[in-house]
Amino acid sequence: MLPVNCGSHADYQNLVVENLRKYYPNPDLLARSTWDIIERFWHLDLSDTDTLLTHKYSKFGPAPRTPSCMQRSYLLSIDFKVSSITEWAAQLKMNPLFAILSGFQVGDTPGVGTFYDFMKRLWDSDDPHMTSHIHPLKAKVKKPDAKGEKAASVEKVTVAELLPQLEKTAFPLNDQPYASLFKIYQKEFLDVSVEKGLIHKDSLALAADGTPVVTSHRERKKRICKCKENGINDCSCDRYFSQPDCDIGWDSSRDCFYHGYDLYMLVDSQSDLPVFPHYSYASKHDSHGFLQAFFRMRAFLPDYKVSKVLLDSAHDAMPYYQYFKRQNITPFIDLNGKGGRPLVYKNDFTIDKDGVPVCPSGHRMRRDGIEVAKGRMKFKCPKISHTGGCISCTCDKPCSKAKYGRTVHLILNDNPRLFNNPPRSSKEWKLEYNARTSAERSNKREKLDFKLEDGRHRSTKMWYCRLYGIMMLQHLDAWEMPSVEAFQKSLLGLAA
């Protein structure tokens, strides 16, 4: 039958108060870090989960657990660093605090099967994976030449081919197996962070980066053909993969190959809060990972207006700049040096690594503003002196007889990749680009603070459930709360 709603969020709070007074009358018996978790979950209203998941339950049979309590309990397991669902179900029976905070009565808590049944309701597909178990062998990622470098792309489709294809793709949210997960995350966490002013959806500065997620020590696959029996050991026939959405990639930070996913995360650069995630094969190059995540995010969050994107040099490709220009998005992308630059500009000038013209004498020109109407940036001779109120050129080999020296105009449309606005040499660009590390900080929190890789799951369904749970907690941690002492006093009526 349909879940019996335990009542409003206020009813949950009353249950917590009643049982905390009963089982933990002395607040000093609990660590301050534990009280921090109690306070956050006390204020966390998950009642929308009951509404969003009602259609996932049958009208017949025994009454199930309340969805909001199941969700709250799962989030608590992540917050208390219990990565095994089996272990968490056991902890609920042994530790009254875990049961109380979940919204369960002490001694009446769900078992392991109930949790997995709840996860199944969060996943809008009968298949726990995104792709078929049977598929061809993939091209292997090669180890980079230098330590710390990312592996070269093995993609068969170029960015120039993929971008217009994804731009035209609709990506209906309800067609995604993680649709219910995303709706709960958006309604109860992402939108709340927007309401609290932590994320400005009308002018979103997106930092983005991919990070490896290890799911197992090795790739598990087996032959389904008869080639080996016929003496053919190196056949290219399809294989059966136990984790079909994973493959082998290169982890540049750990300097080793790994089996798992490439997690590409879009992050608000001002708050360090995650906006949208996307799991891809470990071999997926970041230039493709961004496009897969970005166009899905734009489809699922149409009210979010992206004003800036902050990306590392793996995304330094001309189609990016051309697309961002069409969409009035300012790109802050580091050059990778592989895209090249014109050897000569304006007959006798060269362009340096930051897109700044260099005069015939080898001096970087000085930026002198931008002419928006004409679509060009203006650079002047850096050797012009105004000492003593007298204008003169101090260069040993002046390249112009003009009073203010040589002037060069960079036409932005000539090369939107090199001629960036603001230019890469400016303080404005460097200050904004420094915020790109917010994506790295967010990924670090997910993997180190919330132990993302400790899940050891075997399906994409469970990895998405764990990831979205962690993202929810990242938002919850960012919300301002009263002091622990004030909270204890108001909650239990005890002196601080």
Question: What does the model show?
Answer:
- The protein has 496 residues and is an alpha+beta fold.
- It folds into three domains: 9-122, no CATH class; 134-334 and 435-478, Nucleotidyltransferase, domain 5 (2-Layer Sandwich), CATH 3.30.420.10; 350-422, no CATH class.
- 35% of the residues lie in helices and 16% in strands.
- It has 15 helices and 16 strands.
- The chain has helices spanning 9-23, 32-43, 47-52, 67-79, 85-94, 96-102, 112-122, 159-167, 179-195, 286-300, 318-326, 427-433, 437-449, 460-478, 484-492; strands spanning 134-135, 204-216, 221-223, 239-241, 247-251, 256-268, 274-281, 306-311, 330-333, 350-351, 357-358, 366-371, 376-380, 384-385, 392-393, 407-411.
- Strands 2, 5, 6, 7, 8 and 9 form a six-stranded mixed β-sheet that branches.
- A hairpin with a 5-residue loop joins β10 (350-351) and β11 (357-358).
- It is globular, with a radius of gyration of 28 Å.
